[in-house]
């Protein structure tokens, strides 16, 4: 989809100067829903000097977002170029229909995590879907509300545009411009392909993480005291908002159910193999299932979307101010590029384990030079 002509805008820089920032959108842009995503969209657009109109069922959310610098209240006569609907999934279609009717010259998009059902509801309601195209930024935080919003929330993140046959490329270009102005990576998919994709990479993992974490409710404290980074990784997203996920899973139920049924079959095979580990073929079956997991993980894109694999160097870091910063500075002095970092705390000890990911050919040199500088290497 071709971007429209870029528009120069200005914004005050921290030093008081006025910097010229190129923006593709001309504005104004109306954002309906001043929660995490809506306020983050608004903050990102305001940082580029674009006029943002804020609306929300909660006057408090609007007031907070305005205080954060995310935009202004709506005024009579406002004529937005683009409308971004960022409301809960169970009311998204209704709000989109209302916005299409209220602003007959505007293009409308939404940021809900399910797309096909919303489009179908709009068609059934007779809405002008020639001015609507759904989109979905794959970005978020564990906290919600306007106070959790960030202007850079979408930078480098995929943002799906769910194209359909009733809207022209020319009209949809405003949504492309929105995505590019916010620093996200535009991905084009059909609504059905999008919903199947997010079922696999987002919705089913949420269900599995939540069910796994539920096992901890009645677990002995002694067992929970053994928890390391692995179990925290598996269950991190279990802290997400249940009310929101009930809506998301209900809207994408068919795709999620299909994957969960297949996953149940995988579990049944594993359970059968563990029923008698000494039975002929049982260990081979377990090994094949685990090996399949290795193969699946290798298909996930890594840094910069590549499939490069990294080696982990684990360094013990004392839990004192400045120690992690010193470690990172010394890695830079050694001349090794840090590809990724994960920090785990050692239970009962005032020490953390910094898992440094580097290219395999740099691992030995980094290990040796850090040891020479007095760092303790684990493992």
UniProtKB/TrEMBL annotation:
Residue ranges of domain ACT in the record: 312-379
Enzymatic class: oxidoreductase
UniProt record, GO biological process: tyrosine biosynthetic process
Keywords per UniProt: Amino-acid biosynthesis, Aromatic amino acid biosynthesis, NAD, Oxidoreductase, Tyrosine biosynthesis
Catalysed transformations (reactions): prephenate + NAD(+) = 3-(4-hydroxyphenyl)pyruvate + CO2 + NADH
Top-level taxon of the source organism: Bacteria
EC number: 1.3.1.12
InterPro entries to which the protein is assigned, alphabetical: 6-PGluconate_DH-like_C_sf (IPR008927), ACT-like_dom_sf (IPR045865), ACT_dom (IPR002912), NAD(P)-bd_dom_sf (IPR036291), PDH_C (IPR046825), PDH_N (IPR046826), Preph/Arog_dehydrog (IPR050812), Prephen_DH (IPR003099)
Domain Prephenate/arogenate dehydrogenase, residue spans: 27-308
Pathway(s) served: Amino-acid biosynthesis; L-tyrosine biosynthesis; (4-hydroxyphenyl)pyruvate from prephenate (NAD(+) route): step 1/1
GO MF annotation list: NAD+ binding; prephenate dehydrogenase (NAD+) activity; prephenate dehydrogenase (NADP+) activity
Pfam families in the cross-refs: PDH_C (PF20463), PDH_N (PF02153)
NCBIfam families (UniProt xref): PRK06545.2-3, PRK06545.2-4
Classification via PANTHER family: PREPHENATE DEHYDROGENASE, PREPHENATE DEHYDROGENASE [NADP(+)]
Protein name: Prephenate dehydrogenase
Organismal lineage: Bacteria, Bacillati, Actinomycetota, Actinomycetes, Micrococcales
């Amino acid at each position: 989809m071709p971007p429209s002509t870029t528009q120069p805008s200005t914004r005050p820089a921290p030093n008081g100067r006025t910097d010229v920032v190129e923006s593709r959108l001309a504005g104004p842009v109306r954002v309906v829903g001043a929660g995490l995503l809506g306020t983050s969209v608004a903050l990102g657009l305001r940082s580029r000097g674009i006029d943002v109109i804020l609306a929300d069922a909660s006057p408090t959310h609007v007031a907070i977002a305005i205080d954060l610098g995310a935009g202004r209240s709506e005024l009579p006569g406002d004529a937005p170029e683009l409308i971004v609907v960022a409301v809960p999934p169970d009311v998204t279609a209704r709000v989109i229909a209302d916005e299409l009717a209220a602003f007959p010259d505007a293009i409308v998009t939404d940021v809900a995590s399910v797309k096909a059902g919303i489009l179908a509801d709009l068609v059934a309601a007779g809405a002008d879907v020639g001015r609507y195209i759904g989109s979905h930024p794959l970005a978020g935080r564990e906290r919600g509300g306007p106070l959790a919003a960030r202007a850079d929330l979408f930078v480098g993140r995929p943002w799906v545009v769910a194209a359909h046959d009733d809207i022209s490329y020319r009209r949809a270009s405003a949504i492309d411009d929105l995505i590019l102005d916010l620093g996200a990576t535009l991905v084009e998919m059909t609504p059905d392909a999008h919903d199947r994709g997010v079922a696999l990479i987002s919705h089913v993992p949420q269900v599995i993480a939540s069910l796994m974490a539920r096992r901890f409710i009645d677990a002995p404290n002694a067992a929970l005291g053994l928890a390391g980074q692995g179990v925290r990784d598996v269950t991190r997203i279990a802290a997400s908002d249940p009310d929101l996920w009930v809506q998301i899973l209900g809207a994408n139920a068919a795709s999620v159910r299909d994957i969960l049924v297949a996953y149940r079959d995988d579990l049944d095979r594993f359970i059968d193999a563990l029923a008698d580990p000494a039975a002929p073929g049982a260990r081979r079956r377990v090994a094949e299932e685990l090996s399949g997991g290795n193969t699946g993980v290798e298909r996930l894109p890594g840094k910069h979307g590549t499939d490069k694999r990294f080696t982990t160097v684990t360094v013990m870091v004392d839990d004192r101010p400045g120690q992690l910063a010193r470690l990172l500075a010394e890695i830079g002095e050694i001349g090794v590029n840090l590809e990724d970092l994960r920090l785990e705390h050692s239970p009962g000890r005032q020490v953390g384990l910094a898992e440094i990911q580097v290219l395999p050919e740099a691992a030995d040199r980094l290990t040796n030079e850090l040891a020479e500088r007095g760092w303790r290497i684990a493992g």
